[in-house]
Amino acid sequence: MHGIIGRIGWTVALAAGLAACGSKTTVTAQNASTAEVAEKVKDSGIADDGFISPGQWQMTMTISDMKIPGMPPQMAKQMQGRLGQPHVSEHCVTEEESKKPKEDFFAGEQAKSCRYENFTLGGGKIAMVMHCDSPTGGKQTMKMDGTYSADAYHMTVASQVEGKAGQPMSGMTLNATMDAKRLGVCTGKQAG
Fold first, then answer.
1. Which of 51, 108, 131, 168 could pair with 10 as two cysteines, CB 3.0-4.6 Å apart?
2. DSSP string, 165-186
3. pLDDT (tens digit, 9 = 90+) per residue, 87-137?
4. What does the radius of gyration of the chain's CA atoms come to, in whole angstroms?
């Protein structure tokens, strides 16, 4: 489950940071690989003055709803007790990272297994639907919508995992909000 949440966190955190330049350009893609979307963003000129603002970023993820069919009752109760509690992490974005995004910038470590159904970024808004294959043969669908400015963003996230009966996380649904802000210069702190 940490992989799913981590993928959501980085996808949202880094994709929303594209607005650092305040560009009026809009990037759109349909049925595109993560590499194709990264190339479109690069070609659009949004990243010319820095992909995102370099510095220390703080991300707060709050899960509002999560269901995992077949979860033992004790574990389900523990998970329910965590709903609504913010999870805060920090990451330093270097000058180099802000100007030269990699293919996995949007989708995290499993970028090659992900494909965008649609992707739109521009005018202070971001929306995407992404499908990813899991190593166990399941599929994850993530829908994200939000707003951004040069140093902050707000996103809503909905994720659903489909797989064969009995597979871990099959049928899991998750709804969350993500908020991030640039705190200033990098401190070297990588909290999670």
1. 108
2. TTSTTTT-EEEEEEEEEEEES-
3. 998 988 787 776 655 555 444 555 678 899 999 988 888 899 999 887 667
4. 17
Residue identified by tokens 């607005």 is: 19
What does the block give as tokens for 61? 């993820």
The secondary structure of residue 11, as a DSSP letter, is H
Distance CA(66)–CA(81), nearest Å, equals 11
Please give the DSSP secondary-structure letter assigned to residue 157: E
Pairing of strands 27-33, 139-149: unpaired
Distances (CA, A) of 12 to 21, 81, 154, 174, 190: 18, 24, 9, 14, 17
The answer to whether residues 129 and 158 touch, using CB atoms and an 8 Å cutoff, is no
Cα–Cα distance for residue pair 168/152, rounded to 1 Å: 34
pTM for the full predicted model: 0.74
Strand order in the sheet with 55-67: 27-33, 114-122, 125-133, 139-149, 152-162, 173-184, 55-67, 87-93
Strand partners, 122: 125
Residue length of the chain: 192
Answer for the pair 166, 58: CB distance below 8 angstroms, yes or no: no
